[in-house]
Amino acid sequence: MTAQVLDGKAASAAITHELTERVAALKERGITPGIATVLVGADPASQLYVGMKHKRSVAIGMNSIQRELPADASQQEVDALIDELNADPSCHGYIVQLPLPQHIDTDAVLERIDPAKDADGLHPTNLGRLVLNVNAPITTPLPCTPRGVIELLLRNDYDLNGKHVVVVGRGVTIGRSIGLLLTRREINATVTQVHTGTVDMSQYLRQADVIVASAGVKHLVKPEDVKPGAAVLDVGVTREEDPETGKQKVYGDAHPSVADVAGYLSPNPGGVGPMTVALLMTNVVEAAERTLD
Hints:
The protein is an alpha/beta fold. Helix content is 37%, strand content 17%. The strands form 3 sheets. The chain has a 6-stranded parallel sheet with strand order 1-11-8-7-5-6. It has a 3-stranded parallel sheet with strand order 3-2-4, sandwiched between helices. Strands 9-10 form a two-stranded antiparallel ribbon.
């Protein structure tokens, strides 16, 4: 068996096309969705990520707002910039690129973001609303990566209703939040969460219809851990220096030979990563659409 590839690049391109049409419709009504990024310091990886997001937003037709502060910016200066974006009507959503310099209180900065403009969908208020909302339509920003995982499956005609999903990892970005989405009645999956502290993790993995591997541990999920035909979404990232080239190489949480056992496989890179960016843009476009209500 060779797993069917869940192509995140193709699904992301489809979402981008749809968003382009939605942005054009908003512009006809006098609204240009605005997405902003806050970058403190000059970390090369952060600059690359921010650049990618702005390139995508411009291609969709959005208003791209880049705000930068030096690495030695004070807490007060960062807070002032957050307050400025919260009050800016041309900005419908924004992210603060992490990591922030060590002298900045990251939690305080993230909690200062207006929940309605929380492009990442990870503001405590929005996560709390998601906890409370099992049945009603969603009217708040959703966590991008968990939403990307689910959207990637749905766009490949995978029905999650009644499926047993085992989530590997307990980070805020995906591990702790994806269960809130998967267990909503409209998705209706059953979720088991395991992590690096779980005793005999393999016994849980072998029961799974779907494995979301997001612990950030290289090749943690091995082929013998996977039920034949299961869907495996490889989300975690480990970067190591390639001894031959000296360049950083990306490894996922799933061993490559998982492809010989799984029925569906979202590779890493090329799977959920592009979906995260697409759903980030979706959160901002949806925020702009909500201003019409």
